[in-house]
């Protein structure tokens, strides 16, 4: 079973400015309501622990592998709950430069595994709310820094 959750936000800043905030992993505790902390600096092809927090207080520390870190374009990782195939998530942030002063941030996750049908309410509830809160927070952070 697969389930895709995707959100987007328009940010009034160039892709480079959005990337600067998205890739400053040490600063996440200062502004991000849902991706709370990275232990170390993510490197493509390696695992880095990430603390995630959903609205309502549920938090989980994952140890995803970073699949893609492409400057000003994309950040992507894949994590799993327990063993592969139970509940896996491939999380991504894609930056689309609309103009020199506007960027679309697409945040999504491809959920797969045998638990997906049982967790759809959570995916489209707290997980979606967490994505939207993150999108609003990064928009605010980037646009404030541009002032």
TrEMBL record:
PANTHER family: CHROMOSOME 9, WHOLE GENOME SHOTGUN SEQUENCE, SRPBCC DOMAIN-CONTAINING PROTEIN. This is SRPBCC domain-containing protein. It holds the Pfam family Polyketide_cyc2. The lineage of its organism: Bacteria, Pseudomonadati, Bacteroidota, Sphingobacteriia, Sphingobacteriales. It comes from Sphingobacterium hotanense. InterPro entries: Polyketide_cyclase/dehydratase, START-like_dom_sf. It comes from the Bacteria.
